[in-house]
């Protein structure tokens, strides 16, 4: 596994070593000892899997009281995955990182606690799989506005069309109003 810190260095893009043969391929997608050394000593307690159609945008989500670190990847299709630094003490507060994750590139992204996270589906559909370092806590969930002007995220919108959002995500907080991590 290759571990590459991004412009926000706590955010790490991981590229597995893929062993192809006549049967198909094999890859390791998580190895705790290496993950702890390269990314974080936190342990994972929940695994999630979602399916979304093209044009769906889920996010940008975070939990405030019980922040979740997330190790995310795509097992079918392609998404543009975005993380936003919401740690007020961070030199990169309010900055974002976006990467393309796909079944083809097999990359994983480590999203540390303290970040909002979301993704936009660019393929016909996408299955998204991730591990979390804390449990889902619905009362503690917040949504940051995907198109906040201050964030100015460069989403690769298909045919320039507005993304499809959940009701909750249509009422996301602007960065200015959003409760953040102190
Ligand atoms: C996230 C989550 C949802 N649910 C339920 C609540 C609800 O009825 C249904 C759909 O929930 P949501 O609309 O919040 O699902 P979704 O919009 O896919 O939420 C996810 O978005 C991505 C971007 C993330 O980063 C995740 O942490 C999570 O917030 O599933 C759980 O039971 N456990 C969970 O961990």
Automatic annotation (TrEMBL):
According to UniProt, the reaction catalysed is: dTDP-4-dehydro-6-deoxy-alpha-D-glucose = dTDP-4-dehydro-beta-L-rhamnose
User: Taxonomically, which superkingdom?
Assistant: Bacteria
Q: Where is this site: Participates in a stacking interaction with the thymidine ring of dTDP-4-oxo-6-deoxyglucose?
A: 136
Instruction: Please provide the record's keywords in A-Z order.
Output: Isomerase
* Keyword Plastid belongs to the record: no
> GO cellular-component terms in the record?
cytosol
The pathway entry for this protein reads as: Carbohydrate biosynthesis; dTDP-L-rhamnose biosynthesis
- A Pfam family: dTDP_sugar_isom
Q: What is its EC number?
A: 5.1.3.13
The record's family statement is: Belongs to the dTDP-4-dehydrorhamnose 3,5-epimerase family.
Q: How does it assemble?
A: Homodimer.
Q: What is this protein called?
A: dTDP-4-dehydrorhamnose 3,5-epimerase
* Organism from which the protein derives: Nitrincola lacisaponensis
């Amino acid at each position: 596994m290759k571990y590459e810190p991004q412009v926000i260095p706590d955010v790490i893009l991981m590229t597995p070593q893929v062993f192809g043969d006549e049967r198909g391929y094999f890859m390791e997608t998580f190895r705790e000892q290496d993950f702890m050394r390269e990314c974080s000593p936190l342990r994972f307690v929940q695994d999630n899997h979602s399916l979304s159609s093209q044009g769906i945008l889920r996010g940008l989500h975070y939990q405030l009281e019980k922040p979740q670190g997330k190790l995310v990847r795509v097992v079918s299709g392609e998404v543009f995955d975005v993380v936003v630094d919401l740690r007020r003490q961070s030199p990169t507060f309010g900055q974002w990182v976006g990467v393309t994750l796909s079944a083809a590139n097999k990359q994983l992204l480590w999203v540390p606690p303290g970040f909002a996270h979301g993704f936009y589906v660019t393929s016909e559909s996408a299955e998204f799989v991730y591990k979390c370092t804390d449990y889902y806590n619905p009362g503690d969930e917040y949504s940051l506005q995907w198109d906040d002007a201050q964030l100015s995220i460069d989403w690769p919108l298909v045919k320039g069309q507005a993304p499809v959002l959940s009701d909750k995500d249509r009422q996301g907080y602007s960065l200015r109003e959003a409760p953040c991590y102190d």
